[in-house]
Amino acid sequence: ASKGASKARPISQQQLDELSKIASELRSKELTSPERAEAVKRAFVHAWNGYEAAAFGHDEIKPVSNTSADSWQGFGATLIDSLDTMILMGLDDELRRAREFVAKLDFYQDVPASFFEFTIRYVGGLLGAHSLSGDELYLKKATEIADRLMHSFGSASPFPRSTVNLKTTKANYPGWNSGNAILSEIGSCQLEFAYLSHHTQNQSYNNAARNVYSVLHKMTKSTPGLYPVSVSPDASGFGSQHVTLGGLADSFYEYLIKLWILTNGEDDESLEMYTESANSIEEHLVRRVEDLSKRDEEFVFLGELDGKRHTNQMEHLQCFAGGMFALGSFHSRELKPQTNAEQLLVKKRNQHLDLGAQLAESCASLYWYSSSGLAPESIQYTEKSDLVQNGWWTAQTKYMLRPETVESLFVLYRATGEQKYRDWGWEIFLSIEEQCRTPFAYSGLRDATKRKSLDNWDDSMQSFFLAETLKYLYLLFAEDANGMPLLPIDEYVFTTEAHPLKILR
Ligand code: DMJ
């Protein structure tokens, strides 16, 4: 639903020209990393100012019509998702105003809440802010909302239901999925709930979330480590044989290795699940496609499975996987293996780093080969690459300001120190400036294969743009006063919405 009177006249040609000037000026300069970080920070401030002026307290600004939208029940998704980015960037005045809003929030409302979205954006956003600031208000507010979300868990199922009414506590699995649970929805609360339990000394959050893993792990699968996206609520089986690392599944795989990291290596089962999954992803989902157009390197893409049938398609969402493999590899570097899973992680250290790097480069190349400089939402590809130039083509044209590729570039940079990751991230940032900057904020594109025009803006800026995309870009370039990276990845682990949680030691 879109709210708020339109505060803007239609965007004029003169305004468009001014926007283009900002981007071309940036492009014309050779900037140092700290200067690039400053440019990303200015982009954040531009978007935040627009949000504050037209949509403060709403979930999002609509960045072309300069109005507001409430996709997540209007608790201020952009504001909460942005708190830790503001802390990181030292935006004290903006943060003070946002904190005042958070202090007044009341989650006891008669509205249906998506367990997944509310966990990753609201609970995660508040916990990231707590982790970086130590401010107890954020922990208190995260606990308030988590207590409402806990009603998603019931006695009939080990899995949280998709939607829960925050007041009546009535909860359901989605009707559109024949009443089955969705893998990503039940498997992407484990970091947030583990952190919450640790800091509140209340184990109920972690017990409920963590049990989901044990139950899923025991269920029979056609291929070990590959979990179909649709799960029956009583854990008796899977609703389909569709396996993907994309939508409906992605952050489930991401969280397996990250929970092991967050628990400082204590959670053996999550590492076991990760190494099983990593093996099967390598064996069954990785596809290599010759690049006939520009490079000697092959594209390394991920496909999907329907039973035994392989589908050659990849969503932008799957581009988190480069970072996932690199992160697992990074965390094996000082490991003295004691379990089979730890041994496997150490043994695969170089292989996983190489695979992560290839996936990340392939995802970056989807940006290079697109005329907007920004990657489409999904592609299809052929392994008989003499048929189609490049070997891949666009399936879904939209570009939603998504973070997964820059997230992988960030992890790869931190894991290897190779400058090319910074340069690729900078190119993506410049394209965002050129194509997506509006007078009020940043807008997604309807068609990433076309260059900028008013009609091509989709008038949407989801909260993850400030929570993730700009945060990862900032972290790619920013350094502290001693030239050291901010938020080292051996001290913090990032939730699927890029909220940094300090490793629990
Ligand atoms: C974010 O909300 C999270 O990263 C989620 O895991 C996937 N979708 C968006 C970003 O694309």
Automatic annotation (TrEMBL):
Family matches, as Gene3D superfamilies: 1.50.10.10
Chemical reaction(s) catalysed: N(4)-(alpha-D-Man-(1->2)-alpha-D-Man-(1->2)-alpha-D-Man-(1->3)-[alpha-D-Man-(1->2)-alpha-D-Man-(1->3)-[alpha-D-Man-(1->2)-alpha-D-Man-(1->6)]-alpha-D-Man-(1->6)]-beta-D-Man-(1->4)-beta-D-GlcNAc-(1->4)-beta-D-GlcNAc)-L-asparaginyl-[protein] (N-glucan mannose isomer 9A1,2,3B1,2,3) + 4 H2O = N(4)-(alpha-D-Man-(1->3)-[alpha-D-Man-(1->3)-[alpha-D-Man-(1->6)]-alpha-D-Man-(1->6)]-beta-D-Man-(1->4)-beta-D-GlcNAc-(1->4)-beta-D-GlcNAc)-L-asparaginyl-[protein] (N-glucan mannose isomer 5A1,2) + 4 beta-D-mannose; N(4)-(alpha-D-Man-(1->2)-alpha-D-Man-(1->2)-alpha-D-Man-(1->3)-[alpha-D-Man-(1->3)-[alpha-D-Man-(1->2)-alpha-D-Man-(1->6)]-alpha-D-Man-(1->6)]-beta-D-Man-(1->4)-beta-D-GlcNAc-(1->4)-beta-D-GlcNAc)-L-asparaginyl-[protein] (N-glucan mannose isomer 8A1,2,3B1,3) + 3 H2O = N(4)-(alpha-D-Man-(1->3)-[alpha-D-Man-(1->3)-[alpha-D-Man-(1->6)]-alpha-D-Man-(1->6)]-beta-D-Man-(1->4)-beta-D-GlcNAc-(1->4)-beta-D-GlcNAc)-L-asparaginyl-[protein] (N-glucan mannose isomer 5A1,2) + 3 beta-D-mannose
Disulfide bonds: C319-C363
Recorded topology in the membrane: Single-pass type II membrane protein
Gene Ontology CC annotations of this record: endoplasmic reticulum; Golgi membrane
Pathway: Protein modification; protein glycosylation
Binding residues annotated for Ca(2+), in chain numbering: T496
GO MF annotation terms: calcium ion binding; mannosyl-oligosaccharide 1,2-alpha-mannosidase activity
SUPFAM superfamilies to which the protein is assigned, alphabetical: Seven-hairpin glycosidases (SSF48225)
Keyword Lipid metabolism: no
Principal location class: Golgi
Principal EC category: hydrolase
EC number(s) recorded for this UniProt protein: 3.2.1.-
InterPro entries: 6hp_glycosidase-like_sf, Glyco_hydro_47, Glycosyl_Hydrolase_47, Seven-hairpin_glycosidases
Keyword match Hydrolase: yes
Subcellular localization, as worded in the UniProt entry: Golgi apparatus membrane
Family the entry assigns: Belongs to the glycosyl hydrolase 47 family.
Protein's name in the database: alpha-1,2-Mannosidase
Annotated source species: Hirondellea gigas
